[in-house]
Every structure is written in C-alpha cells, then in structure tokens.
Amino acid sequence: YNFRPWTGGKVLADGASIKNYVAETAKENDVERHIRYGVAVKTADWSSTDKCWTLTAENEQTGDQETYTASFLVGCTGYYNYDQGYKPDFLGEADFKGQIVHPQHWPENLDYSGKKVVVIGSGATAITLVPTMAEKAAHVTMLQRSPTYLMPLPSTDKVTLALQKVLPEKTAYRLTRARNISISRLLYERSRKSPKAMRRLFLSVIKRQLKGKADMRHFS
C-alpha cells in the first residue's frame, strides 16, 4: 500500500512475509474489526425498493446463519474454488505409494526432506515451488506440457535497499514502484514488437546460467 510502503529487501517475498505485512497494516489502521473470518456467503440479493444488498452467510465454525446488508457489494472472490481445487484423475493413482498434494491445500506438516518430488505444471505456482522444494528434497522434477519463458532475477533488490538508506521511506517506495512498472512495460512492449528477439534474449540468459547442465529444449 502506498500509505505503508513495503520495506522488505526480497524481490519476491515469501508467503509468511506478505501475510504479516497485510495483518500488521490492517491492525495499524483498525480494519480488523470490520472483517468477518470463517463466513461463507451463500446468497446475495439486490432490492431495488430498498436500494440495498442482502447477503445470507453461514458461520463455518458454528453453522449459524448470518445476514448482512450493504449499499454496495464488491466481489473479490478470485477465480479459484477454495473448497476443492481442480484435481485430474491420474491413471494408477490408487497404486501410487507416495503422497499427492494440491498446492491450494498444502498440509502444514508436509515433510518432503530427502524425497523425490515431481511438480506437475510450469505456471507461477510451480515456478515458486520448485526452487524452494529443491533446498530440502533429494530431487525435484518439473513435469510440464508447455515451457514458460523465464528471466532470472536477483533474490535481493539492492537498488531498493540503497534508496531506503538515503531517501525518505515513501520516496524510495515511489521510485522503486515506478522503476518496476517501467521495466514491466518495456518487456511487454518489446515482446509484442519483437517476439523473436526477446525469445533469443531470454534463452541466452538461461543458457549462460545453466552452463550446459540442462537441455535447452525444456525452456523453448
């Protein structure tokens, strides 16, 4: 939030850091008292006569029905099914001796230390999981249908950390945000205008980093 700049040095913050940031921001701004946790909205009805929304909800702990009214209703539910994420039927799954885990319902006590792991998919979730799991697992394989073009980034944003030392917090935040937006726009525009050139650029960076340790066909 621009009123409470993110001061972490990581380029891609971990889930715990993001959760703490959101929770602390909500607490500082007295937002928590307006939040109802563990409540599943069942229906939302609009009344033109009363000019308001009426929501019927269920308290997931007690099972009690609750009713809320509002002049405005904003749906920020995302596109996931939070009760059960999509899970395909894998041939021979019943005979599999290992554990099958859906990232959306990650067990807190999951221990994959020293184990062989296969991550199905190559989207944002897989790209986040693979390097993290590789730190503890015996071996991690990404099983993908279509490669995703990647560009490695440093884990720590040294420029941002340097700006935070010499500039006011909000000024450093604005400059960092402007820089990141500019880089994203530039990459998008160049990819649209010269896709082949950008493809060569991405692959050349990956090739230099891999130093022949992996077949480039997995990235193209």
Automatic annotation (TrEMBL):
SUPFAM superfamilies: FAD/NAD(P)-binding domain. Coiled coil: none annotated. The keyword Acyltransferase does not apply. The keyword Metal-binding does not apply. InterPro entries: FAD-binding_MO, FAD/NAD-bd_sf, Flavin_mOase-like. GO terms for molecular function: flavin adenine dinucleotide binding; N,N-dimethylaniline monooxygenase activity; NADP binding. Keywords: FAD, Flavoprotein, Monooxygenase, Oxidoreductase. Belongs to the FAD-binding monooxygenase family. This is Flavin-binding monooxygenase AlmA. The gene is almA.
